[in-house]
Specification:
Layout: E1 2-19, E2 25-32, E3 34-35, H1 37-43, E4 54-58, E5 74-79, E6 81-86, E7 94-102, E8 114-118, E9 128-131, E10 149-162, E11 167-169, H2 177-183, E12 196-201, E13 217-223, E14 226-230, E15 235-242, E16 249-251, E17 253-258, E18 263-268, E19 277-286, E20 293-295, E21 308-311, E22 314-315, E23 322-326, E24 331-335, E25 344-351, E26 354-356, E27 362-372
Parallel strand pairs: 1-27
Antiparallel strand pairs: 1-2, 1-10, 3-9, 4-5, 4-8, 6-7, 7-10, 8-9, 11-18, 12-13, 12-17, 14-15, 15-27, 16-26, 17-18, 19-25, 20-24, 21-22, 21-25, 23-24
Length: 374
Amino acid sequence: MDIKARIKVRNKFEIIVKDVRTGGIVKRAYAENVVLNRYYEYMTANNSRSFFSMIAFGSGIGTPSISDTSLFTFVGAKTATDIEMVTNLPPTPSYRKRKIVLSPSEYIGVTITEVGVVFGVTNTDVGTHAMLKDSVGNTITIGPKTDTQEITIYATVYAEIILPDGVKLIISSGRNELVAMLLGTAPVDRLSASSCKLYISSSKEETDQSKDYRTILPISNTIFGFNTFNSSEKYSQAKYRIGTTVGNGRIWSLVWENTYPSRIFRILFPNELWSGYHFENKSVGIGNGTTKTFILPWSDINATKQYDFYIDGVKAVKDVDYTLSNTANETSVTFGTAPITSKPITGDWWVDYIPKDTNHVLDITFKVTFGEGV
């Protein structure tokens, strides 16, 4: 099963220059980022860096390119402080707003033309790059800075997570490790850590994706973290095989977790990745001339889809030759006349879950591809 998520990231800035003598705002500037290859390089790597730790500013001139590895003319960077962070369920983007303040006594005489969000303290850790503009999009500069001016640089990073139908982002206690990584409140190796685990749910109920729950059968100590990183193609990938001896039964959902209770995602079946399983000519039992009711080996069939039962290869007539009792725990077919001794009873039917047994493995791949948002 291949699960593919797309991540769109964008970053905007607002710069406010205030005269500390009057308290009045003397200038405003704005910036829209270019997300650099350096960002994708770090986000698709197994390391302990955290994105958005600092905001950098410079005085260079040029047109930012995705291949940039630094600001044009680096002036400085300061550790950012949080203003607001909002974690949303897709398709609404999540975002984090931070700021730095250049006090009147700092960077006197400096002109600012460019800004960026950085992973660390050096210019080569820049992940986004933007030039200052006015409210109508014209390039402008701020400065030279005086000792009566305070400059506040606000930066907001937006992360939009696009998931296939049936894959749900889980936000338990307001936190999701994938979102935390994208917005810089968790290191970028968080999803590759040994604490990531995969769980199977045998419950049919569709639980609210924003709530914490644990009606699940764990695949004990199973690591399901990113183990493939590709910065050139901008993706990270996790793989796991559920073997023949674990997870057997009706699989209604899968849950990926990082250190309880931090859920990451839940896959509910059926969905566009798994439309259901069709049993064909499946053995239900053998007639003995007395037994009329036969229990299906896999219960809770999808009765809205075509289903048929056969006695010795001859199709029985629905609601004439037999009736169906269909529940979550047991599905049975009852014939009006008991099938003759030694005659095989078989059936064709659909189930919405994954009917996992000792004869099958389940291979799961979760791929996250990064791109720039608008």
